[in-house]
Design goal:
This protein is of the alpha/beta class. The protein has three domains: 5-102 and 184-428, TIM Barrel, CATH 3.20.20; 104-165, Oligo-1,6-glucosidase, Domain 2 (Oligo-1,6-glucosidase, domain 2, Alpha-Beta Complex); 440-513, Sandwich (Immunoglobulin-like), CATH 2.60.40.1180. The chain is 24% helix and 16% strand. The longest helix has 20 residues, at 182-201. It starts with 11 loop residues before the first strand and ends with a strand. It binds alpha-D-glucopyranose (GLC) and calcium ion. Alpha-D-glucopyranose binds at residues 61, 64, 101, 157, 209-210, 247, 316-317.
């Protein structure tokens, strides 16, 4: 498998294009706005971008309901503007992934409008349909009674997102097609055409939405893995440098499918939420990281210690980090994220501690997610520098609190979270043992106890990371450290005596031990 070298020390910045920077005063962010702010992202130290969906869409699910895969959403700009964004990213030695949504389209997509017709046509089998309106696909919702086609169409997420047909691993009913049938094959071919189109224009790869869900009745993921292997073969031939990151949450499967990296998700078995988003998050100071570590190691072993499991600070689907963790403890979160294997992902605004905006009415299918999607706060000017539009026209209302953080003030304050993140990134980039591929070994993790300690290691160096977000000084046994050189510290100093390491309350340390 080709592995783009730039992934090894990549640090991603996730941009929700709606809310990043508006340059034409319509209250919605746009490509030109992202271009304007590329230097900011670069200066923070990020080397790559994941941009949420930007294709033509009725925006019933923030663009995860695509109406035309080949056309940029006019609200963001034209295809030429998007190409210019790719070029501007590359000029700065950075890379950009688009968000590919292969599992479903919008009901507004022309394929679907053809597919609902009772007469057979090219798109009849593009989606998953039962062969009678009276039968619904079990386990899924369906679109029914919306045309004279006699059948119910399987829904993949919201009910305006019909499931594209990649076939069934084990077809059981007459209407369930095999992966090798013409309809499913044509769907996959078309999705590869879409990828080729954007890669040809200069994007560097894709974050793939719901990547593990394409083939149906596929309990162990075998059909979906095989499907992605076909995509990998095609990419190896035509676009060997294309980088692929999956929203799958099962790295053993996704990496077999040819993905370079997989995300830890805030749902499913990862225990990711134990760290930052539960009643007693570990990083808030009175939680437990042991179940997370056990699961992480299980995945790490299953993915052959490749270390390509990405842990995000947040994303457009979960509560903002700052809803549960602030101040020095937020700094400790970043000293964790930026010292773990795999590429770290920073959700826009998390680097300045942007808050979850409480009590918002849903916008474009955001529901409770809307509060994490508010406009980026740049400075002290109108609408925090996001847009010159009147307040009512903003895509999502701003965080209205008087002390809301912004980039300008964060840059002026040497003690800000922003500067801490920047410092941590700089140190990570100076030590390959802290980057994506180096080994990790947990040296101290205990149920309901602190600290969390691990060693990152490669042929060049051995680095011990000790994190204590709790309000008490703690000590643990570790025979591996005698002399050390401090690379990074927040809070009090680490001390070593008789094989015991002590770290003060609310502190974090990275030390080189070889
Ligand atoms: C993914 C996206 C989410 C979207 C859903 C349906 O989970 O991250 O935002 O609503 O898929 O496409
Ligand atoms: Ca705009």
């Amino acid at each position: 498998m080709n592995h783009p070298a730039w992934l090894d020390n990549a640090i991603f910045y996730e941009i929700y294009p709606q809310s990043f920077k508006d340059t034409n005063g319509d209250g919605i962010g746009d490509f030109n706005g992202i271009i304007e702010k590329l230097d900011y992202i670069k200066e923070l130290g990020c080397t790559a971008i994941w941009m949420n969906p930007c294709f033509d869409s009725p925006f019933g699910d923030a663009g995860y309901d695509v109406a035309d895969y080949y056309k940029a959403a006019p609200r963001y700009g034209t295809n030429d503007d998007l190409k210019r964004l790719f070029d501007e990213v590359h000029k700065r030695d950075m890379h950009i992934l688009l968000d590919l949504v292969p599992g479903h389209t919008s009901t507004e997509h022309k394929w679907f409008k053809e597919s609902v017709k009772p007469e057979r046509n090219e798109f009849t089998d593009r989606y998953v349909w039962t062969d009678s309106i009276w039968e619904e696909p079990t386990g899924y919702g369906s679109l029914r009674g919306i045309s004279d086609r006699d059948g119910s169409c399987m829904v993949n997420f919201f009910s305006h997102q019909p499931a594209l047909n990649y076939g069934f691993y084990k077809p059981e009913k007459s209407w369930q097609q095999a992966v090798t049938d013409e309809g499913p094959k044509a769907t996959l071919q078309e999705m590869m055409n879409v990828m080729a189109f954007w890669l040809g224009l200069g994007c560097d790869g894709f974050r793939v939405d719901m990547a593990g869900s394409l083939v149906k009745n596929d309990e162990d993921g075998k059909g979906t893995i095989a499907l992605w292997r076909q995509v990998r073969d095609f990419l190896n031939q035509k676009f060997p440098d294309a980088a692929m990151v999956s929203e799958w949450g099962e790295p053993d499967k996704s990496l077999q499918g040819g993905f370079h990296m997989d995300f830890l998700l805030h749902f499913g078995p990862s225990h990711y939420n134990d760290l930052f988003r539960c009643e007693h998050p570990f990083f808030a100071g009175d939680g437990d990281a042991s179940a997370f570590v056990a699961k992480y190691l299980e995945n790490y072993e299953k993915s052959e210690r490749k270390g390509l499991i990405c842990i995000p600070s947040g994303n457009h689907d979960m509560d903002r980090l700052a809803r549960t963790i602030t101040g020095d403890k937020a700094k400790i979160v970043f000293s964790f994220l930026l010292s773990m294997p795999g590429a770290p992902f920073i959700y826009y605004g998390d680097e300045i501690g942007m808050r979850y905006v409480e009590g918002l009415t849903s916008v474009e299918g955001g529901y409770s997610r809307t509060g994490s999607r508010s406009p980026m706060q740049w400075d002290d000017s109108v609408n925090a520098g996001f847009s010159s539009a009147s307040k009512e026209k903003l895509y999502v209302p701003m965080d209205e609190s008087e002390d809301r953080p912004n980039v300008k003030r964060a840059m002026e304050d040497p003690d800000s979270l922003y500067h801490e993140v920047k410092k941590l990134i700089t140190i990570r980039q100076q030590h390959s043992a802290l980057q994506s591929l180096a080994d990790i070994r947990f040296v101290w993790v205990k149920e309901n106890a602190y600290p969390l300690a691990y060693i990152r290691e490669n042929a060049e160096e051995k680095i011990l990371v000790v994190l204590n977000p709790s309000d008490k000084e703690v000590a643990f046994k570790c025979d591996e450290v005698s002399a050390f050189e401090e690379l990074y510290r927040l809070g009090g100093e680490l001390t070593v005596q008789d094989g015991m390491i002590t770290i003060p309350a609310v502190s974090a340390c990275w030390v080189s031990i070889k």
